[in-house]
């Protein structure tokens, strides 16, 4: 979605009523953020809306990007927010071989998740249980981590449920919404 450099458009202040709506939508989509929501979106602080190309809205607090949304799609967290609160989102892990494709903006394919270095929910190899017990459905927002790295490299929307991925082991797994080094990551809001 953000393969090229992007220039921010108009920046406007979000009304307090709309801000409350965004806050409740964030908690509905990402319930694990509840203990941190006052740090992420303080009630007394002003949330800004930055218009981006291709009908994307970016919600920021000062110069800190928080969430973005394409038209009426689900709100998706910016990677800077994911890096601060990594355990609050559904996570999957790709193997080392898939990293360079993900960082070039390619659609994530199922073999990157089902190979020995990848991790899906309820995986036998997931000793710590950080990838969850619940299977994820197509259309859910998911954070992609990479084997051997500490921070997430991508956030996107699943094109196929994780249970189906384990069975078919091929096809498109996740559509890239935002990844390290893309136009949204490099966007200067200062």
Distance between the termini: 22 Å
Question: How does the helix and strand content classify structurally?
Answer: alpha+beta
Question: What best-fitting shape do the alpha-carbon axes yield?
Answer: globular
Query: What helical percentage do the residues reach?
Result: 10-25%
The oligomeric status of these chains comes to single chain
**What is the succession of H and E elements?**
EHHEEEEHEHEHEEHEH
Q: For the CA atoms, what is the radius of gyration?
A: 16 Å
Short description:
24% of the residues lie in helices and 27% in strands. It has 190 residues and is α+β, with helices and mostly antiparallel strands.
Topology of this structure?
Layout: E1 11-13, H1 16-29, H2 37-40, E2 47-52, E3 56-61, E4 64-70, E5 76-77, H3 79-84, E6 91-94, H4 96-102, E7 108-109, H5 111-114, E8 141-146, E9 152-158, H6 162-168, E10 172-179, H7 183-186
Describe this structure in words.
Involved in translation. Belongs to the TMA20 family. Pfam families: Pre-PUA, PUA_elF2D. The structure is a single chain. The chain has 7 helices and 10 strands. The protein has 190 residues and is of the alpha+beta class. The strands form 2 sheets. It has a 5-stranded antiparallel beta sheet with strand order 1-2-3-4-5. Strands 6-8-9-10-7 form a 5-stranded mixed beta sheet. The protein is globular and about 45 Å long. The model has no long low-confidence stretch (mean pLDDT 89).
